[in-house]
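Here is one chain, start to finish.
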Amino acid sequence: MINWQPISTAPLDGTDVLVYDGYDVWKAYAKWDTWSPPRGRYKWYCSFISDDDAHSVSLYHEPTHWLPISDLLKPLGHL
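Its structure:
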C-alpha cells in the first residue's frame, strides 16, 4: 500500500519526489524562490524535456501530499 505524506513533511533540499496537487501527480522538487511572487518561500517545480531542451516550471496548484519515488519501487522488488 502506498502511503502519501502531508506536504509539510516533504524534503526541501531539491530531492525529486512525487507530489499530488489535488488534480495530478507530478515528479517534482522544492526550491527556495526569490524571484516569483510571493517571494522568499519554497516553491514546487517539475522538470520536463521539450524540443531537446530541459525546462523547469513551477506547479500551478500547490501540492498537498508527497511520496518518495523509492516507495513506488518497493512493491516491484529489485529491478
